[in-house]
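User: Sequence recovery, please. Input:
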């Protein structure tokens, strides 16, 4: 298969590329690096990306920024970070990708454990991740041409504990290599509308 990985230079993205590269042709896409660049918050940039790479069999997104901070200090502008980037950015990818995937292709997005297990200062992340899970379940029943869509919902990564560990006391971390297995299941399997929890 020909697979585009958006966010290929991030921690999860690198693990996904490593997981799939031995079996498939991988196109690595980043915000400022990789074979191609894209700004997922800009629908024109997303359309331009697909115009460049042409028809593909699968797209995997491990991209998206969130805002972490106390509820009392949240402003619409701060909340917009996650809504515009991780939520609408990935939805932009899905909306455009559906028209550029080969028949039977697949879309895999990324949410996270905070959709179900809130933490302090994680209101933006919980909202965005829950919305992504809902989007995928709904989109799955409308996609045409046998195109599938799933979302991987991981716990905190072992590799990210130095930065995010203090937010996730009591959570069991998972290595990126284990999380990458869920992307393999989504891309190379047959299910659709699934939320693959790696907790």
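Assistant: Recovered sequence (199 residues):
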């Amino acid at each position: 298969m020909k697979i585009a990985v958006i966010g290929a230079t991030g921690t999860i993205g690198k693990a996904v590329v490593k997981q799939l590269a031995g079996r498939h042709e991988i196109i690595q896409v980043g915000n400022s690096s990789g074979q191609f660049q894209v700004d997922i918050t800009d629908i024109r940039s997303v359309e331009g990306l697909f115009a460049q790479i042409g028809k593909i069999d699968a797209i995997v997104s491990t991209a998206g920024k969130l805002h972490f901070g106390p509820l009392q200090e949240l402003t619409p502008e701060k909340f917009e970070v996650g809504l515009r980037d991780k939520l609408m950015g990935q939805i932009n990818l899905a909306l455009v990708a559906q028209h550029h995937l080969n028949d039977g292709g697949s879309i895999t997005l990324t949410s996270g454990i905070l959709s179900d297990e809130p933490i302090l200062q994680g209101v933006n992340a919980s909202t965005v991740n829950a919305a992504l899970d809902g989007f995928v379940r709904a989109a799955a029943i409308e996609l045409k041409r046998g195109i599938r869509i799933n979302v991987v919902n991981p716990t905190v990564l072992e590799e990210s504990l130095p930065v995010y560990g203090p937010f996730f006391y009591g959570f069991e971390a998972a290595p990126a290599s284990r999380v990458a297995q869920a992307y393999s299941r989504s891309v190379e399997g047959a299910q659709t509308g699934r939320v693959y929890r790696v907790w």
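The CA atoms of residues 38 and 49 lie 6 Å apart.
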